[in-house]
Amino acid sequence: MLRTFTPGLLAVTILLGACEQQTSQRTPVTASVPASAPAESAALEYEENTISVTDESQNGVVFITRRNQMPGTGMDSSEAGEDASGQDVTGTGSGFFVDDQGFILTNFHVVEGAQQVTVHLPDRKREFPARIVGVAPEYDLALLQTTDIPDDLYDPLELGDSDQVRVGAKAIAMGSPFGLEFSVTQGIVSAKNRVVPTGINGIPQNSIQTDAAINPGNSGGPLLNSAAEVIGINTMILSPGTAASGTGQNAGVGFAIPINTAKAILPRLKAGETVNVPRIGVTGIPVALLPGEVRQEFNLPDDGVLVQEVSPASPAAGAGLQGGLRRLELGEAALLMGGDVITRIAGQPVTTLQDIQTALVSQQGGGTVELMIQRDGETRELVLNLAARNVE
């Protein structure tokens, strides 16, 4: 699964299968170092922490195998390729236990379209069947459950607080790159709140950037801090080039879904829901794209989104948001003028419809969000009710 991500004019390949967040309030896992240890003790302590985190966490990580059937062909399709002979094709990924009820978090793209999902643990040759409980395709998250693994064979991982992530802190990625089961790599948190297109619709979302090596097969695996807490879910990498096989390669720039994003929707995933990013129900055009004389004629601000249409029975309609009524021919385009201009949502400035969607990523269905608009040159505040029935 590859995507093209173009920052500026440089086209690079985003490979689904990456990284996540960092620190929390637990005490870092440490190993004792003799008081008489020489100057290299600091380095040894750093190494011992990595070993301790690995030892503590490895029984909570799973290797995931899936089989997909290509519609109408009877053939399977996966990240591992397609078999023209019609034989089963297996795709692989990673995941981790979040509790003692057998629930496993992973990426949606790891299990997308799966007809069969199996998991196994480190040093366990036997595969265990798992079922897909809930999915969040636009967040690239999925929740599995297996009830066949005795609970004394695995240890759920501790979920940290990704809001506390610090740039420069240790980041440990665990997973199965290229099918090399239960590999461990180490790096740092390179950046926080890095916005990258995520999920099946490529909605820009905050992520944690890391230089811990992440490759195909790491998707869905945990990114941990020095306290052995999960701070993110590895999901994609930037790859400026690909191997001869066409597969993207690690270049030291990986991304993880913040664990707080997963924690916020975890109850809904456990309830078997398909969770999507909330939508408010409007179409619009960035004001900045309009000629200056048009903005002046209609008393529009320099930035914001000019609402064109409002969907009936949507959160926007319920809040009283108004679309345009006067048709304006602008070259080959036809616009509706006179509608509201959205300038802020959830406290974030708005210049494009994408800004609105990005701000809604962290909102939950059934909650409310504040919207700042300009109407007839006056600033107003509206409250959107993201009722669950209007979210999908």
From TrEMBL:
SMART domains assigned to the protein according to its UniProt record, in alphabetical order: PDZ
UniProt-listed GO biological process terms: proteolysis
Location of region: Disordered: 68-88
Domain of life: Bacteria
Single Gene Ontology MF annotation: peptidase activity
UniProt keyword Hydrolase present: yes
Alphabetically ordered keywords of this record: Hydrolase, Protease
CDD domains, per database record: cpPDZ_Deg_HtrA-like (cd06779)
InterPro entries the UniProt entry points to: Chloro_Bact_Ser_Proteases, PDZ, PDZ_sf, Peptidase_S1_PA, Peptidase_S1C
Record keyword Hydrolase present: yes
Domain PDZ stretches: 263-377
SUPFAM superfamilies assigned: PDZ domain-like, Trypsin-like serine proteases
Protein name: Serine protease
Species for this entry: Deinococcus malanensis
